[in-house]
Design brief:
By secondary structure, the chain is an alpha+beta fold. It has a single domain, classed as Heat Shock Protein 90. The chain is 31% helix and 30% strand. A five-stranded antiparallel beta sheet has the order 1-2-3-5-4, with helices on one face. A hairpin with a 2-residue loop joins strand 2 and strand 3. Helix 1 packs antiparallel against helix 2 and helix 2 runs antiparallel to helix 3. The radius of gyration is 15 Å and the shape is globular. About 6% of the residues have low confidence.
C-alpha cells in the first residue's frame, strides 16, 4: 500500500465529485481518522470551486492536480492549477467578522481552508502562472 497518490482532472464543475471521491478513497485506504478526511474534503472543495469559478470563470479544460502523501502524523496535500495567479490575502478578510447578512458574498474560502489546514502556503506553479497550494491536515487533531 503506497503512502502517496495523485489525480489530475479538468477544472470543470463536473470534476468535483471525482476529486472528493479520490480524497475519501485515500482516507479509507490508509485508515485515516474520519475528521481528518472531512477537513481535507472541505479544503479541496473550496480550492477546486475557487479555481473553477474565479480562476477560470466557470470552467476550463486546464488541469488541476492533487497529490496526497502521508507523513508521521499528518496528511500532506499539494494542489496545483493552471488558473491565473491568485495571491491570497495575508490575513482573514475584514468582512468575515460581520454578521452573515451584512457581509458580501464570497471571500471566505481561503479563510476556511486556512482554519482547517496547517502550514498552508501558496506559490506560483510555473513560469506561465498557475497556483500551487501546499498544506497539511493533522491526523493527531482528528
Amino acid at each position: 500500500m503506497a503512502d502517496a497518490a495523485g489525480t489530475t482532472l479538468a477544472a470543470r464543475p463536473g470534476g468535483l465529485p471525482a476529486l472528493l471521491d479520490f480524497a475519501r478513497s485515500f482516507g479509507r485506504e490508509h485508515g485515516l481518522p474520519e475528521a481528518a478526511v472531512h477537513r481535507l474534503v472541505v479544503i479541496l472543495e473550496e480550492l477546486f470551486l475557487n479555481t473553477v469559478q474565479h480562476g477560470h470563470g466557470g470552467g476550463s479544460d486546464a488541469p488541476v492536480t492533487v497529490e496526497l502523501s502521508l507523513l508521521a502524523d499528518e496528511l500532506r496535500c499539494s494542489y496545483t492549477d493552471h488558473a491565473p495567479l491568485f495571491v491570497p490575502p495575508a490575513g482573514l478578510p475584514s468582512h468575515i467578522e460581520r454578521a452573515p447578512d451584512a457581509r458580501p458574498l464570497g471571500g471566505l474560502g481561503v479563510a476556511m481552508a486556512r482554519s482547517l489546514a496547517s502550514d498552508l502556503s501558496h506559490s506560483q506553479a510555473g513560469a506561465d502562472g498557475g497556483n500551487r497550494i501546499a498544506f497539511s491536515v493533522s491526523l493527531a487533531r482528528a
